[in-house]
Design brief:
Elements: E1 10-11, E2 22-23, H1 25-38, E3 41-45, E4 52-53, E5 69-73, E6 76-85, E7 102-109, E8 116-120, E9 133-138, E10 149-155
Antiparallel strand pairs: 1-2, 3-4, 3-5, 6-7, 6-9, 7-8, 9-10
Length: about 160
């Protein structure tokens, strides 16, 4: 791997004080770097059961096999479950109050075996339903975190 591919990212909690730092590790760093630099979603495939997981992790949950085969995933998927939040609270990621309403869903990306949690666009709530097709909308300015995906929007696919 090149030096750029081995770059490890460290995330903080904005202005909130935390008594620790968290490293996303080798695969988490690769996932966030590809998201930031190329708008690509990476998963990882188990060598035994062939399941693909996003975000990448080191070990397959059912097989306990070490995983190392990264695979590029589609930015499209299926909405498996969702909620629409209509009350305000402080977002633990940013420490600021998130505007309401907003949507949050479990998205099963095409080519992946698990669901990925993220914000969903609820501009037209009539389109938000289980089984709806969705596509990632990327932030203009990407920083190497999950918010590099602004949200997933409903699409006619």
């Amino acid at each position: 791997m090149s030096e750029k591919e081995m770059e490890l990212l460290t995330k903080g909690s904005g202005e909130a004080e935390q008594p620790f730092r968290y490293s996303v590790g080798r695969w988490g760093s690769k996932f966030l770097i590809e998201l930031r630099d190329h708008k690509k979603l990476l998963g990882i495939r188990c060598p035994k059961c062939q399941k693909v997981y996003v975000p990448p992790r080191q070990v397959c949950s059912p097989c306990f096999q070490r995983m190392e085969e990264l695979v590029e995933l589609s930015d499209k998927g299926t909405l498996m479950a969702f909620t629409i939040i209509r009350f305000s609270f402080i977002d633990p990621e940013t420490g600021i109050t998130r505007p309401v309403p907003y949507g949050y869903g479990f998205i099963k990306l095409d080519g992946c075996d698990n669901s990925f949690q993220h914000f969903i666009n609820i501009e037209d709530e009539s389109k938000v339903k289980i089984g709806a097709r969705v596509q990632a909308v990327f932030s203009e300015e990407r920083k190497g975190n999950l918010m590099d995906i602004k949200y997933f929007e409903m699409i006619d696919d």
